[in-house]
Amino acid sequence: MEINELRDCTVERLNDLETNLRRQIFEARIKNFTNQLDDTDSIRRARRDLARVKTIINERFREEAAIAVTAEAGEA
C-alpha cells in the first residue's frame, strides 16, 4: 500500500483496513506455524502496512487535537 493512498482514506476506512490487516497477520502467523504458508514475507509486508495505517490514524487524531486546543485558546 502506498502512503499517499492511505492519506486519502477516511478514518472509518483506515479503521477497517487496520482490522483486516490484523486478521491477515494472525491468519498468516497460524499458517506459518503449521507450515502452510509459502510466502513468509507476506507477514512482514502486512505488519508494515498496519504500521502505516496506524501512523495515519495517529496523525489524524493529533491534527484534531491541535485544532481543538487552538479553538479553546481563541475562546479564552
Describe the structure.
The chain has one domain (3-75): Helix Hairpins, CATH 1.10.287. It has three helices and no strands. The chain has helices spanning 3-7, 11-33, 41-75. Helix 2 runs antiparallel to helix 3 (41-75). The relative contact order is 0.14. The mean pLDDT is 94.
Topology:
Elements: H1 3-7, H2 11-33, H3 41-75
Helix pairs in contact: 2-3
Tally the structural domains.
Answer: 1
Number of strands: 0
Q: Kindly report how far apart the N and C termini lie.
A: 43 Å
CATH class: Mainly Alpha
How many helices? The count is 3
Annotation keywords:
single chain; 76 residues; mainly alpha; Helix Hairpins; 0% strand; elongated
Please give a quick description of this structure.
By secondary structure, the chain is an all-alpha fold. It has three helices and no strands.
